[in-house]
Amino acid sequence: MDPNEHGTFYSALKCPKCPNGQLLPGNPLSLDLSSIWLCNLAPRCDFIIVASQVMDLLKNVQLDVENAAVEHSLFQEYQNLQSVLAKYRGKILHRNHFYIMNIQYALIMVINQLLEIVNEEEALKLSYQQISLCRSCIDVVDVLRPGNNRIRGKIQLSLFKSSILSQDFVQDAFVMLLFLGNLLYFFHEGLLMTFLVEAKRRMSEGSDFALTGRKQFEDILNIMRIGRECLILEPPGSPEHTRALKLSLESSGLEPLIRFFNIRPCS
Ligand SMILES: [Zn+2]
């Protein structure tokens, strides 16, 4: 077995003794609590730790993660998860460690809920943060759990939602939607229609928006397509499966946009 798990360092701890080292089990197959973990930069770095100390440390992480989510408001949970992430990511645990992935995934899900209730300025900040969290999780998931699966699908759809929200030309549309008190929900047909209106407006101003906007829209559709392929495998009737069914390119919300972006502008 590869101790650094195909280069993901999914179980690695940050070496406390040197700036770039990662602690890995000397024998990844050993279940012995007295087995040695050593720095991957050995023999340049001689730091070692025994497996039981690693277990104790991970128990503390687990406790911190559990405490972050228990009986708190959504905002509090968001703050708590951020603190736990800042405490461990790249400092005590490798940035790809499975606990870091769990915390990031929890944050992505909390942000999904927050995006439905916050103001537009906060939503923009959250969507940028969510994009970076999603991309960092996807990098690891693609190596360790390739193919279509539920986790990957849910991350892809969160990325889809944030990508739509963070497109600069959607900002005005987004503000307007919030102003009108519309339920902000990705794939909301109103949002897509406003997106289309804004796209047309920019194009009529004679900018090169037709090309850049089309590229952005294609990227978003691609993210959506991967999300759909993952979630369509979930049991029929489940929320994930139902969501996947809505994500069809023939959807009445998307169809005008697809038609629009297929049209080359007349000069
Ligand atoms: Zn070291």
Describe it.
It contains ten helices and four strands; from the N terminus they run ββββαααααααααα. The chain is mainly alpha-helical and 267 residues long. The chain has a domain at 115-267. Mean pLDDT is 78; it is low at 172-188 and 263-267. The relative contact order is 0.08. The chain has helices at 51-69, 74-88, 98-114, 120-144, 150-166, 171-179, 189-204, 209-231, 239-246, 255-262; strands spanning 13-14, 22-25, 36-39, 48-50. A hairpin with a 7-residue loop joins β1 (13-14) and β2 (22-25). Strands 1-2-3-4 form a four-stranded antiparallel beta sheet.
Order of helices and strands: EEEEHHHHHHHHHH
Shape: elongated
Distance between the termini: 60 Å
Instruction: Assign the structural class, choosing from mainly alpha, mainly beta, alpha/beta, alpha+beta, or little secondary structure.
Output: mainly alpha
- Mean pLDDT across all amino acids: 78
Feature tags:
4 strands; 267 residues; mainly alpha; disordered C terminus; 10 helices; elongated; 59% helix
